[in-house]
Amino acid sequence: MSTSQLHAEAGNGQFEIALRYTTCTNAADNLIYAREVIRAVARKHGLLATFMPKYALDDIGSGSHVHISLSQNGENVFAASDGSSRHGMSKIGEEFMAGVLHHLPSLLAFTAPIPNSYDRIQPNTWSGAYLCWGKENRESPIRTACPPGVPDGIVSNFEIKAFDGFANPHLALAAVIASGIDGLRRHLSLSDPVDDNPDILRDKLQRLPVSLAESVEALAKDTALEALLGEKLVVAIKGVRKHRKRITCFHIHSSLGIPRALPTPLQAYDAYQSVSVAC
Fold it and tell me: What is the pLDDT of residues 82-111, one digit of tens each?
């Protein structure tokens, strides 16, 4: 496991670590390893390292952004072969990304799995609150990215911003891949990109689910995603999410035997983490 970037972010005590790209299953494993190491080292020094999406409601949230590209025989097949493509990506890339965008409301049940996730996914917070995509638009939940070295007009990957550190990366990435496969099978195409702040266009754009209950409702209606992921898995996810949305600080008190005073951030974080392991 290796990193490509480590730098301070805009929130109080907030840092961003970018893990190097690798195959999907390895990327999911590496994310878990990184989170466990960071937590353990912080606790060893008497500190709390939290990946809670919105640790402080008056500060910037924390995501777990994912960059997706497609490769075949070692070649990037997401990118267009030349600059003549409409969006700088191949037909395969566009159809895959269109599938992810189409299923995004349902995907939030996997990528934003706790009630606190929706405190983060708000307009004007760089998290992506509307169903749209953009070119290098940090207010879109999905944006195409062109890292240094990529020719002008070519897109090498896309980023999913509506993804946080409480998601099970294996299940969430499986759902993303299934959504992309559906896009390929149905030859979906992308709408026009949103280049401005989506909140300016709020009357014209669909709002993404504003609560865990709404994302679970979207998943319950998404028969295509269920067919690809399997009924048993989707039923399990819906059941766990419906239970989780009822968890409050008062439930944390009773389950941990904490005195009636509000739990410390570390106690609350550990309680949330304990119910995030399975799904």
Answer: 766 889 999 999 999 999 999 999 999 999
User: What is the longest distance spanned by two Cα atoms in the chain?
Assistant: 64
pLDDT tens digits, 197-218: 999 999 999 999 999 999 999 9
Which domains, and CATH codes, for the chain?
61-240 (3.30.590.10), 247-279 (no CATH)
Note whether 230 and 172 are within 8 A (CB).
no
Q: pTM value?
A: 0.87
Residues contacting 146, CB < 8 A, separation 6+? 88, 136, 154, 155, 156
d(CA 114, CA 240): 10
Q: How far apart are alpha carbons 91 and 80 in whole angstroms?
A: 8
Beta 15-19 vs 66-68: how paired, if at all? unpaired
Helix spans in the chain (H): 24-44, 91-102, 104-111, 117-120, 169-186, 212-221, 223-229, 231-244, 249-256, 265-274
